Amino acid sequence: QVQLVESGGGLAQPGGSLRLSCAASGRTFSSYAMDWFRQAPGKEREFVATISWSGGSTYYADSVKGRFTISRDNAKNTAYLQMNSLKPEDTAVYYCHVGVYWGQGTQVTVSS
User: Fold this and answer.
1) What single-letter DSSP state applies at residue 90?
2) What is the 3-state secondary structure (H, E, C) of the chain?
3) What whole-number distance in Å separates Cα of residue 42 and Cα of residue 35?
4) Residues paired with residue 96 on neighbouring β-strands, in sequence order
5) What span, in angstroms and rounded, lies between the C-alpha atoms of 106 and 2?
6) 49 strand-pairing partners
7) Which candidate, 8, 28, 3, 26, places its Cα nearest to that of 102?
8) pLDDT tens, 37-65?
9) Contacts for 15 with CB less than 8 Å, ≥ 6 apart
10) 5, 103, 102, 94: which is closest to 46 by C-alpha?
11) Rounded Cα gap, residues 21 and 54, in angstroms
12) Please, are residues 37 and 79 in contact by the beta-carbon 8 Å criterion?
């Protein structure tokens, strides 16, 4: 059974940092791109960042460019999202996505 499990969410102050992890199990995703999406209350789910299977190519939404960094460790079947300079508008549930699979999400709240 394929599972994507996000972790690392929580409460951060504006300007703070969090690091999200997405651990995949049930199969190897080393040949797939891995993505992060987020959904804020009352809004549609939106794209945040993606990383190619090799990790050599990344792409970010304009809203997070320069503040967030996506990475992956294929040996661990895990993707990461380093979030710096957090803003209140980054508050959302963050989801990992690979192929047709979605994680259950992890809540990120940015508030003073």
Assistant:
1) G
2) CCEEEEECCEEECCCCCEEEEEEEECCCCCCCCEEEEEECCCCCCEEEEEECCCCCCEEECCCCCCCEEEEEECCCCEEEEEECCCCHHHCEEEEEEECCEECCCEEEEECC
3) 22
4) 36
5) 18
6) 36, 60
7) 3
8) 999 999 999 999 999 999 899 999 999 99
9) 85, 86
10) 94
11) 17
12) no
- pLDDT digits 0-9 by tens, 71-99: 999 999 999 999 999 999 999 999 999 99
- Helix, coil or strand: residue 56: coil
Is 68:83 a contact under the CB 8 Å cutoff? Answer: yes
Cβ–Cβ under 8 Å, residues 15 and 86: yes
Distance of CA 34 to the CA centre of its chain: 9
Residue type at 74 in one-letter notation: N
Whole-number Å distance between alpha carbons of 78 and 23? 4
